[in-house]
Amino acid sequence: MNKVLAPVLLGSLTALLYGCGGGGGAPAPVEVVATPTTVAATPTTTAAVTAIPFTFAAVPSFGTTATTTVTFKDTSTTPAFSIVSGTNTASGTTTFGSCDFHVTASTFPAGSPLAVGQTVVVNPCSISIDTQGQASGSAEQRSIALVLSNAASTGTTVTVGVNPGGQLTLNGNTIGTVTLTPVTGA
């Protein structure tokens, strides 16, 4: 090989390798959510689950002993709700800090926590999300549950996403962030 051409060719190949990332660095580790995630019920989180029914065996805070379904009806800062248990229904608006269900219409009997004019305060009031093992950048069908005090709904499947920065989405709505943990090999 020509004595002049060899150093030029070697320099060009070295520059090409460094420019293409061929510098020998290790690939970025895969990161996942290590545990399930619980988020407070807020206008932001309930907007992400509007029109999704959450079914409970019973909700002691509501005074129900039969299957009870709770549905948030809109995306406002005080979302409307519907509660159905047996042949009775209640509806009204929700405020947050805890979940305060303000009953404005009801077929529950007088004296019931869900009778017209009542406000049922439930604390804690949160959404439990199956994020464990979910990788950054993925959107998957996962189970969520509404937790009202000591009662948890059965799992409901929604689209849960986690981006590389840990941003958490429910049905495409950003609701917060989660901590990502690098996956280590065994």
Describe the largest sheet: 7 strands, antiparallel
| H and E string | HEEHEEEEEEEEEEEEE
Strand elements, count: 15
Report the principal-axis shape: elongated
Alpha plus pi helix count: 2
Oligomer: single chain
Helix content: 10-25%
Low-confidence spans: 4-22
- What structural class do you assign from the helix and strand content? mainly beta
What amount of the residues lies in strands?
35-45%
Distance between the termini: 47 Å
Query: What integer is the average pLDDT?
Result: 87
Q: Nearest-angstrom radius of gyration?
A: 26 Å
The tally of domains stands at 1
Question: What this model shows, in words?
Answer:
By secondary structure, the chain is mainly beta. It has one domain (31-182). Helices cover 11% and strands 42% of the residues. The chain has helices at 5-19, 43-47; strands at residues 31-33, 37-40, 54-56, 68-72, 80-85, 88-96, 99-106, 119-122, 125-129, 138-148, 151-152, 156-162, 167-170, 173-177, 180-182. Strands 2, 9, 10, 11, 12, 13 and 14 form a seven-stranded antiparallel sheet that branches. Strand 10 (138-148) and strand 11 (151-152) form a beta hairpin. The longest helix is centred in the N-terminal third of the chain and has 15 residues, at 5-19. It is elongated.
Q: What topology does this entry show?
A:
Elements (H helix, E strand, L loop, with lengths): L4 H15 L11 E3 L3 E4 L2 H5 L6 E3 L11 E5 L7 E6 L2 E9 L2 E8 L12 E4 L2 E5 L8 E11 L2 E2 L3 E7 L4 E4 L2 E5 L2 E3 L4
Antiparallel strand pairs: 1-15, 2-9, 3-4, 4-5, 5-6, 6-7, 7-8, 9-10, 10-11, 10-12, 12-13, 13-14
